[in-house]
Input
Amino acid sequence: MRASSLRTVPSTGSAQRRVGWGRIVTAQLHVEPVPRLALRPWEAAAALGVSDDFFAEHVAPHLKWIYVGRLRLVATDELRESARRNGERVPA
Output
């Protein structure tokens, strides 16, 4: 089966292939989820359980950002490390 003859159906995780007389055959694909290496700002806020506004004002300025064109991403490791660092602070 050639790769060009397959069409992935994202909502079902299956692939469809056109066979003789226009008939379409569907096959289930087993696709493992890929771990995310970086998140968009709104995803990072959700991962921390804070609002977008709180994240932008109090968290984002202290993170290292990845820029891809106009896309702004934060590495999941950076987010974890920031949470670990700031979780150790105890108010006097």
Q: What stands out?
A: The chain has two domains: 1-31, 38-87. The chain has a mean pLDDT of 81.
